[in-house]
Description:
- The chain has helices at 2-19, 33-46, 62-66, 75-105, 108-119, 124-132, 136-152, 156-170, 178-183, 187-203, 206-218, 232-247, 255-283, 290-295, 300-303, 320-329, 333-349, 353-358, 367-382.
- It has one domain.
- With 383 residues, the protein is mainly α.
- 68% of the residues lie in helices and 0% in strands.
- It has 19 helices and no strands.
Amino acid sequence: MMATVAFPFGCIILIHSLGQKDLLLYNRMFFGFDYSDLYGASQVYLRGFDIYANRRVVVPPAFPALFSWLTWFREATAAWIMAGITLASVVGGLGLVARAMGARIGRAALLVFVLTVILLPMNYPFLFLFDRENLDGIVLLFCLAAMFGVGRGGRWDYLAGACLALAAGIKVYPVLLVVPLIISRRWKVLGAMAAAMIILIGATSPGLWGNYVMHRMIGRTEWFTLYENGSIANTIAWTLLVVQDIIHTPLWPDPGRFLLNAYGVVFLMLFLPCVVLDAVAAWKGLGEDAVVRVLRYFPFMVAIPKIAFHYEFIVLLALLPVLVWDWQQAKDPHDRTRVLWQAVALGFSQFPAMAWFKLGCGGEVMILPGAGLLVYLLLGVSS
């Protein structure tokens, strides 16, 4: 997986040298482009107005409320602080999952952590996230803190539930992790998450949460972009566009309806079979360790939405210790071959698509991150 990440990055540097093109991994905006809107949202929140008057504010109200203390600083200073928070969150989250998996895969967890941190400066989702200063690093930290708590059990379950509530309050997709927790019957975690979520909504304005649901969760279902989007729906869309150009026949007459169907295909053909098989295995007493089980659902957090920007794929780095677990548990060469292919597929999910596009490749390169994610999931289902 590490080689799959490093090789395309190295090729970009070579092409940059040969073509003397600007080496830019993403669309040029300005440092902290996404955080700038969130900084403004925090200011608006403190004044008691609607943060969703700015249509670029698409996150739940928790972050503008809980991180409103950053408005004590000038925006430029707050952006630098946010950069430090992003870096610390990603590294801290990876450290927590290494601790959680350490009791399961031994010293390999530490080795994976060290190698991942060393290669972070060559990881496209991380660099994209660091430049835009979106919130997925913080979400990753809270999700993996929850995994640490789930692994400890006992009173730590309450901390795990609170961390998941904070993660879902900052970006909604961690709500999906409720499914494996139900299958694992971790009722204390779920109860703590529900209680913390109620407190969070009450403390950060129920009215704003209502606006978020109506104008962002429901109202955003029509939004889509073909660029900087690693979703499986976008991979299917670009594949059809390529086929259309080859056969000179339109295959995509109604984009909105097609993308809705693509969303349904991902949900029905990938997510539901995993849930059913997982639930049956748990019912028969053959289920996995709760930490490993929940981590296996991380890919769905970016696979199911129609829009999953490339920086959101940072959450997939949490799967590296799971691959080591699968390798150690493999009973025959066929299983180990599958794990190796999953590692390659996971590497392609981190493919620097926008960088290759900027260096002259066609938009077809947008296929690769979602394709890597899709292959990873299909290999997981086949096991």
